[in-house]
Amino acid sequence: MKSSKPISILGESILPGESKTIDLEIAKLHNTAKLKIPIIVERSKIEGPIILFTAGIHGDEINGVEIVRQLITKKINKPKRGTIICIPIINMFGFVNMTRQFPDGRDLNRVFPGSKKGSLASQFAYHILTEILPLADYAVDFHAGGASRFNVPQIRLAPNNPELKVLADVFNAPFTLFSKNIAGSFRNSSDKLNVKMLLFEGGKSLDINESVADEAVSGVKRILAHLEMLNPKLNLNTQESDTIYIEKSTWIRARCSGLLHDNGTIGTFVKKGTVLATITDPFGKFERKVKAPNNGYVINANHAPIVYQGDAIYHLSKTLTNGNQ
Q: Within a 10 A sphere around the Cβ of 220, how many other Cβ atoms?
């Protein structure tokens, strides 16, 4: 656990009991306009852990931004003890342009640990990893499904990590997926720095979904209560059912191109052979059913009206567990 002594971010000190917004500014827009990334820090006078909440690594994943925004506006980020750091938008360039990537075309979540003199995305990764992440004991990074693919609210964590498993139990999202860390990802670098990070997925890009945000905010409050950091003025949300753990899953891909007619099975348990959707041509010549290849939960659904052969259209669980590893 980090001490309650002054912490420093980008050369600015934040004392116990202080609130401060620090702007990260590495590069300007092409028209020379400044582009600042606010880092919002709230410290209690009481010693405790440091937890980091981040979103917007992919600039078009607006739902994550909304979640961290709510943590701030609802004053959930004002801790009973310890320190809470919020970065609602890491990839401000992508957010401004409503795109996933940095202007250099790179995916920020694949260039960690970055480089001080590398590409623009690499430089941002370097500063996040050297200036901010090492301060944290815990972190939650918020994402949404790419393109038109909608993720049910879910936590992702690496398998065989008992400490993260405890946190996932506490967060208690509707679903929890065991997935290996990806090389170059924020989560992978976090693991190497021994910062205990959960990755939240929910909703789809360029969209705000209130129910997904509600699930995430409730999970955050449970995590903070578990760490004895939740402001006592806030009500703690309880979950009636336990998270459903998924060890293995499979992607169902379109066997032909056409118009996708989704049957609304997202988040539900379906049996093998259940018709998840129908793909048709626009001229009334054919209709082809998309069937579940096995029993499982539909944890991602493609909401695009048009798909091409080979497109990922559904993510279906294969192996479930009660959480015991």
A: 27
Q: How far is CA 249 from CA 75, 152, 227, 300, in A?
A: 37, 14, 31, 11
| Dist CA 262 CA 204 (whole Å) | 15
Q: Give rounded-to-5 percent helix, strand, coil for the chain.
A: 20, 35, 45
Residues in the chain: 325
Helices (H), the chain: 62-73, 92-97, 120-127, 162-171, 186-192, 210-226
Q: How many CA atoms lie within 13 A of 10 on its CB side?
A: 17
The pLDDT of residue 152 is above 90: yes
% pLDDT > 90, the chain: 89
What are the structure tokens assigned to 27, written together? 């590069």
The pair phi, psi for residue 311, each rounded to 5°, is -65, 140
Is residue 33's pLDDT more than 90? no
Q: Give the span between the Cα atoms of 306 and 250, in whole angstroms.
A: 21
- What are residue 3's phi and psi, to 5 degrees? -80, 175
Does residue 317 surpass a pLDDT of 80?
yes
User: Phi/psi of residue 169, each to 5°?
Assistant: -60, -40
- Tokens 């401004």 belong to 96
With 0.85 as the threshold, say if the pTM is over it. yes
